[in-house]
């Protein structure tokens, strides 16, 4: 019996309308456009300003677009794997809120947390559901409202993050194209360098946690940068070696949009030029779980069936990994 292969058959994305520029950040913290751009590659980021809208809203817009573009009935969806670092609530899962908003009634769904690598972990999970033969249509979503946990008085982190997200539809491949290989890693020893100190069961919300800004993300930038450069590039290199791929074979590198210097190091490790690197960090910043699906969304018109793509990411936890796929349409 031939193995079932999972393929991406449709995608959608969404970023809020409000644009937070480097010039505006100059009026908020001690920074400037040149300093931000030279260190991160970011010129602006999108922010969801409405306090009544959160991550589920971002995902809802992306999924509605996906369903409309692909002509998929919400009742056809079997499962939702939702990667996010900023869920609307501790519970219920944001996947549940998304399903209700979109009208998905016949699926099970849940949230997955792996920081900036979350979309890769969620994609790998969705692939397993398709490969099992038990499910035919799986939505994989990556979305975050990072502005909800960013301290806009802390200049080293507030310049990096933005809001946005995207979604892909996984189905059994009809043409032989799809996800070919997956490399994923977790190392909990990296926790001290990138995390959110309060809001979970270890430090529940209290006057102390709020007064001490413990609900904002914390990052020791220099350490995270150094390890991210090494691990993200090595994961991409490893998946190429396992599949006997050369730089010339790759149509696109789809990297997590954390820092342009990290992206450049990964491309160099893979021996591919900048013309083969999907990049929108200049316009959106780091949307955490949203970066990779937003890249695919932005570059969709450039993709053709059979293109070889390498997805790569690094995130808090530490988590990192790479996925090799052939584009399905």
Notes on the structure:
It is a single chain. With 329 residues, the protein is α/β, with parallel strands linked by helices. The chain folds into 2 domains: 6-172, Thiolase/Chalcone synthase (Peroxisomal Thiolase, Chain A, domain 1), CATH 3.40.47; 179-326, 3-Layer(aba) Sandwich (Peroxisomal Thiolase, Chain A, domain 1). It is 33% helix and 24% strand. It contains 11 helices and 13 strands. It has a 5-stranded mixed sheet with strand order 1-7-6-4-5, with helices on both faces. Strands 8-13-12-11 form a 4-stranded mixed sheet, with helices on both faces. Helix 4 (94-102) links the parallel strand 4 (79-83) and strand 5. Helix 3 crosses helix 4 and helix 8 packs parallel to helix 9 (260-270). The longest helix is centred in the C-terminal third of the chain and has 22 residues, at 221-242.
Features:
2 domains; 11 helices; globular; four-stranded mixed beta sheet; single chain; Peroxisomal Thiolase, Chain A, domain 1; five-stranded mixed beta sheet; 329 residues; alpha/beta
Most strands sheet = 5 strands, mixed
Number of structural domains: 2
Q: Which CATH class of the largest domain?
A: Alpha Beta
Q: Beta-strand level of the residues, as a percent range?
A: 15-25%
Structural class of the helices, strands and pairings? alpha/beta
Q: Compute the gyration radius: what is it?
A: 19 Å
Task: Using the 3D structure, state the CATH architecture of the largest domain.
Answer: 3-Layer(aba) Sandwich
Q: In total, how many beta strands?
A: 13
Unreliably modeled segments: none
The CATH superfamily of the largest domain is known as Thiolase/Chalcone synthase
Number of helices: 11
N to C succession of SSEs: EEHHEHEHEHEHEEEHEHEHHHEE
Shape: globular
- Percent helix range: 25-40%
Distance between the termini: 25 Å
Named CATH topology of the largest domain:
Peroxisomal Thiolase, Chain A, domain 1
* Major sheet: arrangement of strands: 1-7-6-4-5
Query: What value does the average pLDDT take?
Result: 97
